[in-house]
Design brief:
Elements lengths: L1 E3 L2 H7 L4 H7 L12 E4 L5 E9 L2 E8 L1 H15 L3 E6 H10 L3 E12 L13 E2 L5 H11 L12 E8 L5 E8 L6 E8 L8 H17 L2 E6 L3 H9 L3 E10 L1
Parallel strand pairs: 4-5, 10-11
Antiparallel strand pairs: 1-2, 2-3, 3-4, 5-12, 6-11, 6-12, 7-8, 8-9, 9-10
Helix pairs in contact: 3-4
Length: about 250
């Protein structure tokens, strides 16, 4: 296995794969010891990118041919340690788990992304970036509508929040920008108050943040529960593509 230290090389070798670029977090210019690292197999047909503390997990984004990815992931785990979880397309992770018996699948979910600003149909509404003074209200909304959110106000890696208010100033829907990479804006913490669901507030705040992230980074992505069909329909309506992922960890 060969370490990749240049972000441009990684982007080229992974063909712009947004999951790998997210895990890479830019590679260059980060503090050693707590930064993302990337490797490729000797034949160049597999890539593994280890990103610490991304959406509350240490992750290894994996891409490529299974026969090359299996020894690559084994070698990366020996370097980065047992807290890191391989993450990638469902069939690839199934092959890796079969090839590394110490691993077991732990979660299946969706990765949704977009590269094109033109693909985001902007919705009219009052979505705005929220000032820091509003963070307690964001937390109150999350406790009611999304208590398991990985993104929380003030948590490491959570950058800023956008929201939609009603005519009385009450926040009805929020979305966070968190754990973004230089070439990928990452959305998290999408929540709509139970009393306001089905009225387009979630689509309004998400379209606002997606447009901002696509303009800034050139790509945007989020994770979604594979069984949350309403959320998947919403995100597809905003131009995001769905991709089935599985995560594994050392048993």
């Amino acid at each position: 296995m060969i370490e990749i230290s240049d972000h441009a090389e990684l982007a080229a070798r992974c063909d712009g794969d947004t999951l790998c670029l997210w895990a890479a977090q830019g590679l260059a210019g980060q503090t050693s010891g707590d930064r993302s690292r990337a490797w490729r197999s000797a034949d160049g047909t597999a890539i593994a990118v280890a990103g610490p503390d991304l959406s509350t997990r240490d992750r290894i984004a994996v891409r490529g041919r299974a026969e090359a990815a299996i020894p690559l992931v084994r070698g990366v785990l020996e370097i980065v340690g047992p807290t890191f979880r391989p993450l990638g397309d469902r069939d690839l992770i199934a092959d890796i788990v079969a090839g590394i018996p110490e691993l077991a699948p732990v979660a299946a979910f969706g990765w949704m992304d977009s590269h094109s600003p033109a693909s985001v149909p902007l919705r009219p509404g009052a979505a705005r970036w929220l000032p820091e003074a509003e963070l307690p209200n964001v937390m109150a909304l999350l406790q009611v509508s999304f208590p398991d959110s990985d993104a929380l106000p003030g948590a490491p890696g959570v950058e800023r929040w956008a929201g939609v208010r009603d005519e009385h100033g009450r926040i009805l829907a929020v979305t966070a920008v968190a754990w973004s990479a230089p070439d990928l804006g990452y959305l998290a913490g999408v929540a709509v108050h139970p009393d306001a669901r089905g009225r387009g507030y979630g689509a309004t705040v998400c379209s606002f943040v997606l447009a901002e992230m696509l303009a800034k980074h050139g790509a945007a992505a989020l994770m979604v529960d594979e069984h949350n069909h309403a959320a998947i329909r919403l995100y597809r309506g905003l131009g995001l593509r769905y991709r089935s992922l599985t995560a594994a960890r050392l048993a």
